[in-house]
Design brief:
alpha/beta; TIM Barrel; single chain; 21 helices; eight-stranded parallel beta sheet; Urease, subunit C, domain 1; Diaminopimelate Epimerase, Chain A, domain 1; binds zinc ion
Length: 559
């Protein structure tokens, strides 16, 4: 008898005292897609502090409503797990906001009108810089020139970078400051475009040639760098991103992010990488990762490697020559002997590696290098057994290499908007046969991997609705797709949703913490004006973010 009493007392001690069930916020009347296979749809979500405490029906949510609970009537809005941009350059997005943002210039006239408006607000002699223009939709689709810019900016130096960062147009004042005239030779790795008749520079500077002018621009101040991050975060939150995975940079970013979190100036989650091989990567390997700092908002555990260039400028490393320029097959931008010791060290120390690889040669190269490192460091000698290394872009992959991602446990991190922008020139660059294996989302998913979906902003616009549309439509924003563009590689809506929620969480070792709407997970929600799982694809582009929730806090509410 006494034993029974003791046992009963012990058992009672193990049962937690029932807590008050009232939640901080109850969202009701939502059209909820949970990305939880056990219960895919719901109407209501209750949140206490940073966690989801209930997912289910409006009626059952009622018991979480107490006197202090904020009840948010969503009036049928669509609720998704908080969206993640698995590949973005956060400061670059902010600087695009601070300088002249030309991403929506629809024609040369429109572009020049935007430049003129900015010049009119700028003191004579002061620099005007900007980024984001893409001429491929202009009529005709040709680069702007120095004389175009001179007509609206006679007294200010102006340099405006194309969206992909691989070219800029400068006016005469900027070219003069850069010391560029008809006699200036091309620098290594770059080109000063010149008029065929006069031999004078026409204003376009490609790759490293941009540096001749850029180094004359006064350097960024710490205040400007801080403002860029704050503005980038603001834009991301308003678009519905709850985490960005910042693809590269240095310890300067790490220190700045820590400062801004400490001061309460940013609330977006950031999953950070720094470039390597080099001093930042070495420091990360020595000092170790930062995981889940600032209430799970900040994690820093990744080295970003760049293994080739871009397809637009024919810098992507291909296995064979470019179809529209037979004398080149692009180039690798990292040496195996520099990479190998770092990969082995990273594996031992539990540091993730993500590598930019666009061309099929770069993709094969990095899969080979990853495979060699995995063989060199057996699981027992690794700090993290399943290292979840990633390939950023994985754009042109030889079909033979597609199954290797799953076999090696390597995650492709891909940006659907690249495919719908590149479809205007990629068929010329690589030829129709090589398009099999290019932007091959469905083939990769079928092979057994998850794809971490991202935008690569500011290379692309960085809008979740453009990325989601691109993934499911695989057509440009006007509905066009060309010959050989493999429509069967367009993903299902269910998979597209995972590409921006659960799968990038997995690619960040956070699938138990976030990425779906489940009890116990962090309360990150992206709430939209329309049901992107049901509406016709073109309407996805008109869909707006109406509310963003990060860590249980409503950080953005649209009008
Ligand atoms: Zn990038």
């Amino acid at each position: 008898m006494r034993l029974i009493l003791v046992v009963t007392a012990l058992l009672l001690a193990l049962i937690p005292i029932p807590q008050s069930t009232s939640a901080d916020i109850v969202f009701k009347n939502g059209n909820v897609y949970t990305v939880d296979s056990k219960a895919e749809r719901a109407q209501a979500i209750a949140v206490t502090k940073d966690r989801i405490v209930f997912v289910g029906s409006n009626a059952d949510a009622q018991k979480f409503v107490g006197s202090k609970t904020r009840v948010v009537d969503l009036k049928g809005a669509t609720v998704l797990p908080g969206f993640t941009d698995a590949h973005q350059h956060l400061s670059g997005v902010g600087f695009r906001e601070m300088t002249l943002n030309l991403e929506d210039a629809t024609s040369l006239q429109d572009f020049l009108a935007k430049v003129k408006a900015r010049v009119d607000q700028t003191k004579p002699g002061a620099w005007v810089t900007g980024r984001g223009w893409i001429e491929t939709h202009w009529k005709p689709p040709v680069f702007p020139t120095r004389s175009d810019l001179d007509s609206v900016a006679p007294n200010n130096p102006v340099i405006l970078t194309r969206a992909d960062g691989h070219g800029s147009v400068a006016n005469s004042a900027a070219l003069n400051l850069g010391g560029i005239d008809k006699n200036t030779p091309n620098p290594f790795g770059g080109e000063i475009s010149k008029d065929k008749q006069s031999g004078e520079p026409n204003g376009m500077l490609l790759d490293t040639a941009q540096g001749l002018v850029r180094r004359r621009i006064p350097p960024t101040s710490p205040e400007e760098a801080e403002r860029a991050v704050v503005l980038g975060v603001k834009r991301n939150i308003e678009l519905g991103w709850t985490q960005v995975q910042d693809a590269g940079g240095s310890y300067n970013d790490v220190e700045l992010f820590k400062k801004l979190y400490t001061e309460g100036k940013i609330k977006l989650r950031i999953y950070k990488a720094v470039h390597g091989p080099g001093p930042s990567a070495t420091r990360l390997l020595n000092e170790g990762a930062i995981i889940g700092a600032f209430d799970n908002r900040f994690t820093f555990r990744t080295i970003k490697v760049v293994s080739d260039g871009a397809l637009g400028s024919r810098g992507a490393a291909l296995l064979g020559p470019y179809s529209d320029k037979e004398d080149t097959s692009g180039f690798l931008t990292v040496k195996a002997e520099d990479l190998r010791p770092m990969l082995v060290d990273a594996l031992r120390k539990g540091i993730q590696v993500e590598t930019h690889a666009i061309g099929d040669r770069a993709n094969r190269f990095i899969l080979d290098e990853y495979e060699a490192a995995f063989k060199a460091v057996p699981t027992a000698e690794r700090k993290v057994a399943d290292p979840r290394w990633r390939v950023e872009h994985a754009q042109i992959v030889n079909p033979e290499d597609i199954p290797r991602f799953a076999k090696l446990g390597v995650i492709p991190s891909m940006q659907p908007s690249h495919a719908i922008g590149d479809l205007h020139f990629a068929p010329r660059r690589v030829g129709i046969p090589r398009l099999k294996g290019s932007y091959a989302w469905v083939s990769l998913i079928k092979s057994g991997v998850v794809i971490a979906g991202g935008s690569d902003a500011p290379v692309e616009r960085g809008e979740p609705m453009i990325e989601f549309y691109a993934a499911v439509a695989r057509k440009d924003q006007k509905g066009f797709s060309g010959e050989g563009w493999h429509p069967e590689e367009a993903v299902s809506r269910a998979d597209a949703l995972k590409m921006f929620t659960l799968w990038p969480a997995y690619a960040a070792f956070e699938e138990k913490l976030r990425g779906s709407i489940e009890v116990g997970k962090l309360a990150d929600l992206t709430i939209l004006s329309a049901d992107i799982m049901m509406i016709p694809a073109p309407e996805i582009l008109k869909t707006r973010c109406v509310m963003t929730v990060i860590n249980g806090e409503i950080v953005y509410e649209g009008s």
